[in-house]
Amino acid sequence: MVDPFRADEEADNARGLAEAAPHYHGHRERLRERFRKAGEDAVSDYELLELVLFRSIPRADIKPLAKQLVAKFGSFAEVLAAPRARLKEIKGVGDAVIDDLKIVHASAKRIARGEAVKRPVLSSWSSVIDYCRAAMAYEDKEQFRLLFLDKRNQLIADEVQQKGTVDHTPVYPREVVKRALELSATALILVHNHPSGDPTPSRADIQMTQAIIEVAKPLGIAVHDHIIVGKDGHASLKGLKLI
Fold first, then answer.
1. Residues 163, 185: contact at Cβ < 8 Å?
2. Reduced to 3 states, what is the DSSP secondary structure of residue 64?
3. Which of 110, 113, 185, 228 is the most buried (most CB within 10 A)?
4. In terms of DSSP H, where are the helices of 118-172?
5. What are residue 185's phi and psi, to 5 degrees?
6. Which domains, ranges and CATH numbers included, belong to the chain?
7. pLDDT (tens digit, 9 = 90+) per residue, 7-64?
8. Using the 8-state DSSP alphabet, how is residue 2 labeled?
9. Cα(160)–Cα(147) distance, rounded to whole angstroms?
C-alpha cells in the first residue's frame, strides 16, 4: 500500500530539486542540441562563444559574458584574436577562459594553414587568403609576414618578419631577400595587416613592395603578390595592378 504522506513528501522533494537546479542547465543542453542538429549556422556569434566557454566555466550562466565579449570586440573571430591583456580587462575572464579561446584560435589558424599548403600556393589562392585572414586580420598591431615558395610554388616557410605599431611596420628589403636566399626560395608572397580594418594599400605599402621587387629580381626571386588583410576584407596589390 502506498503511503500518501510519503508520496507527498517525495513530490515536494522533487519540486524542491527542480527549483534548486540553476536555470542555465537547461539552456546549455538546448544550445548544444541546436548546434548538434542544425550546425554552426543555427547559432549566433555569442552562442558559439558560449559553447566554447561551457568547459571553461562549468557552473555559471555565461550568456551575459559571451554577449559582453562580442559587444566589446566586435565578433566571434575578434574575441578569439583579442590580446590576452585586453581580455583580462573583462570581469569574469581568467586564465582558463583565455587559454580556451587561444586554443580555438590556434586551431583555426592551423586548419587554415593546412589547407593552404596542400597544393601549390598559386593554385589554391582562396586557401592562402583564408589563412592570411585567420592568422592576421584581427591583430591589434601591424605584422609583416613572408610566405617563401620553391620553384614549384610550394610553401617552404611562413614567417612573421616584423611587428610594428597600430599603423606602421618597419620593413627592410635587403633583409627580406637575405632570408629568401637562406631558405633557397625562388618566390615570395608578402602579407601584412591593417589593424584599422581597411585593407586599402597606402602609398608606403606600394613603395615598400616595389623596393623589395627591385632588390629580389636580379637574384632570381619573384614577388608574386603583396596581400593586405583587415577585418573588413583583403586587398591584392597584383589584383589592383599596383605591381
1. no
2. helix
3. 228
4. 125-136
5. -80, 145
6. 4-108 (no CATH), 120-236 (3.40.140.10)
7. 444 444 444 444 445 656 688 889 999 999 988 888 999 999 999 999 888 888 889 9
8. -
9. 9
pLDDT tens, position by position, 119-153 = 666 667 888 888 888 888 888 889 999 999 999 88
How many other C-beta atoms are found inside a 10 Å radius of the C-beta of residue 80?
24
Sole residue written with cell 527542480: 18
Residue in the structure block whose three cell numbers are 631558405 = 183
The rounded distance, in Å, linking the Cα atoms of 61 and 173 is 52
Q: What is the 8-class DSSP label of residue 222?
A: E
> How far apart, in Å, are the Cα atoms of 190 and each of 99, 212, 235?
30, 10, 12
Distance, in Å, from the CA atom of 55 to the CA atom of 103, rounded to the nearest integer, reads: 13
- Rounded to the nearest 10 degrees, what angle do helices 45-53 and 95-117 cross at? 110
In the structure, what pLDDT confidence band is assigned to residue 170 with cuts at 50, 70 and 90?
Answer: confident
Q: What is the dihedral of CA 72, 200, 169, 180, to 10 degrees?
A: 120
Helices 203-216 and 173-182: crossing angle in degrees, nearest 10, is 40
- Report the C-alpha gap between 185 and 193 in whole angstroms: 23
Spatial distance between the Cα atoms of 216 and 173, rounded to a whole number of angstroms? 8
Question: Of the ranges 137-151, 162-176, 222-236, which one carries the lowest mean pLDDT score?
Answer: 162-176
Rounded Cα–Cα distance for residues 197 and 210 (Å): 23
**Verdict on whether the full-model pTM lies above 0.85:** no
For residue 48, the SS3 value is: helix
Q: What is the CA radius of gyration of the chain?
A: 25
Q: How far apart are CA 40 and CA 86, in angstroms?
A: 27
